[in-house]
Every structure is written in structure tokens, then in C-alpha cells.
Amino acid sequence: MSNDRRLSLFCGLLAAGALSLAYLLPVCRTEGTSMQPTLKDGSILIFKRTKHPKRGDIAAFRHEGRVIVKRVAAVSGDTVDISPEGAVIVNGTIQVEPYVSCLYRGSCDAPLPMTVPENFFFMLGDERVSSIDSRSGRLGLIDRKSIIGKLFCTI
Length: 155
Prior knowledge:
alpha+beta, Umud Fragment, subunit A, 7-stranded antiparallel sheet, 4-stranded antiparallel sheet
């Protein structure tokens, strides 16, 4: 095999590997402060592809042509509520959220309490004061089809 052919084969395999890795582990950069203090504005995030994030996972999803990152607060079948003080209550249990710096209900137009329908997620930002999330009709519940994956690591 000639050196040119070896180089072409190597480059082809390298490109195929990079594309496979990019598909399996999508990368994005955060914009804004809605996930602080957990994620800083401009953080580079690597996600593991899944359509089944669990409660507490940080997940990326597509919404109106953008990639958005929030935390899964409730999954299909869960009943979720938010107290007037901002405590998240799932299936009657107040959630312990050490990643939230301050509890805040905010302007919530979601019909709470609600049972999350099948194939949907109730997502919240960690910085509740500045986050537009499932509490708002602007975002609402997130369809499983929109989920890209759950956070694997930050760079």
C-alpha cells in the first residue's frame, strides 16, 4: 500500500471517528446565568446522548431552534408543585436541592400542581430568579423527542 493511500485511509478513519464521537457526545456552550452556580456562563459542556434523563440530571434539549440546558425536576408520571417560597415538591416530597442558591417561585404560569404527561419532562434552571423554564408557558414541558442528552462532563 502506498503512503498516499495509507494517509487517505488514516484521514478517513480519523474523520469517521470524530463524527461518531460528535454524534455520541454532543458539545455545547452555555449562554446566560440560569444554571448558576452549577454551570457558569460560557462553560463548554459534553453530553451523553439519551432520551431518558432522570430526575436531577442536567439535560440539553432543542427548543425553537436553540439548544437549552436545564435540570430535570420531574419526569413522566411525577406530580410536581412549587411552594409559594419556591420549594420544589415531587410526588408529595420536598426536594433537597443543594445546587440551588436561593429558593424562588417567580412568576409561574404553569398549572401547578401538575402530573407530568408521558414522554415529557418538567425542567428548571438552578438559578431560579433568572431562569425561564417549565414554570413559564414560554418554555413549558419538554417533549422527550427534544432531548439531546444528559450532562457527561464540563471542560
